[in-house]
Amino acid sequence: MAAVEEVLSAPGFFSKERITAGPGFNRWVVPPAALAIHLCIGMAYGFSVFWLPLSKALGITASVACPKDESVIAQIFTTTCDWKISMLGWTYTLFFVFLGLAAAIWGGWVERVGPRKAGVVATLCWCGGLVIAAGGVIIHQLWLMWLGSGVIGGIGLGLGYISPVSTLVKWFPDRRGMSTGLAIMGFGGGAMIGAPLADKLMKMFATSSDVGVWRTFLVFAAIYFVFMMCGSLGYRIPAPNWKPAGWKPPGRKSLVTDGQVHADVAWRTPQFWLLWSVLTLNVTAGIGVLGMASPLLQEVFGGRLIGVKASFDELTPAQLSVIAATAAGFTGLLSLFNIIGRIFWASLSDQIGRQATYMVFFLFGAALYAAIPWSADDGDLGLFVAFFCIILSMYGGGFAAVPAYLADLFGSRMVSAIHGRLLTAWATAGVLGPVLVNYIREYQLSHGVPRAEVYSVTMYILAGLLAIGFVCNLMIQPVAKKFYMTRAQIAELDAANNTGGGRAEIVGGVSTAVTPMALVVCAWLAVGIPIAWGVSVTAVKAYAIFAQG
User: Fold this and answer.
1) Fewest CB within a 10 Å sphere: which of 158, 319, 348, 352?
2) CATH assignment of the domain containing 450
3) Global pTM?
4) CA–CA separation, 517 and 505 (whole Å)
5) Per-residue pLDDT tens for 82-117?
């Protein structure tokens, strides 16, 4: 009877009290739980691998063209002609629009309910969206693809992206940058694993009447469901005021606050909007380059990529095919450095401070952008590629270090909610970067500027944006104490958030407070093996292509 009463009085499965870790819990289990989610939702970056097959879903070997007079609305609902790649690309736009919206709208909810419930909801949205998208492919309805992957999946992206941030910051107050860098590295690495896997699955499922996409979506949904649920259920939060043994808070040194700022107050401070500008400018420059990496390399170097003295416009179709493959290797290499930068720069920020790290991004980045036209004119492919690899590492590092920057400025209690609102900077940059780069390119081409030179002005403009970002970052000062929550407000917040008092989770009547080392090792292997496979595939492909060139 006593056992039954204990079960009935136990806190809910998703409550914070249920997942508050007890003494002896190993905090190193939490980063792989976050990685398990981010590696799955990070496939959003690699969704373009599906565009070409889907553009031939009906024709199989060649696209079935829609009538020239068919309206856009009709193409969304058509079942008789294939979708254009430009129409499919709207899925990618929806991903990041709804990621930003979900993070901003439900960031406070994530803070209140904790990472377990947020992770499970993210899992259902992301994987359920893939299932709905598979149905859209089967019945050939583009709107269902957009609804499933773009809208519902995008909401899953936003919730999954911010779900571990506050938890990791609280578990690693001594290594904030490193801990959040590990998780956000997973978002950058999701496509590195998912894209080649998707290519293999589509080839395996393809038949004479099917390009293999919808089955690949269902397999991905199943795999991601397992990984994301394991990650969600693996989350634990520390007891209130928990600190690593022997660690002392650094006070206000290097902008690190000794108070807590409420999310509803944080966005009214000048520090929030300065950091919003910092992230917007850093991402605008990086995402602009990432979006134009393939055509940039081809148009700037042309025949030099294959040892031919000819401009891009002078190459034959066969030669264009070869340099396109080289550009694909270049894009893969940039993705790898995007991932490496997320953990490298975020970890470095723990040593030199977040503000100093962003100063490096802006000063060094501006110099590299300004030097790219020179390396292109000089014909030094190796130096050109190296410059871009470093730039993309700083792009990824900017994403990874910003949650720790927020925790430094505003405290760790509501960092997920504040981070969610800050991610509107990502949505803004996602529009500004590509539009800026593409329109400048088109304008110069229309005025007779050679293809090899159309990016020079763009590089100087991006360098200028980084210079402005440097000034914004330099202006960030410690948050004034008048914005801090009082002790009574913090106590009220903890009560509203149902923060537990250190109860270990009970499974089958056995306390799991002491974490077996075997569990820690298995957790890291579960995420480490896929990452190692993705890195090896990317590295081998990039090496083979550049060796060929």
Assistant:
1) 352
2) 1.20.1250.20
3) 0.83
4) 18
5) 998 878 878 877 888 898 889 989 988 998 888 999
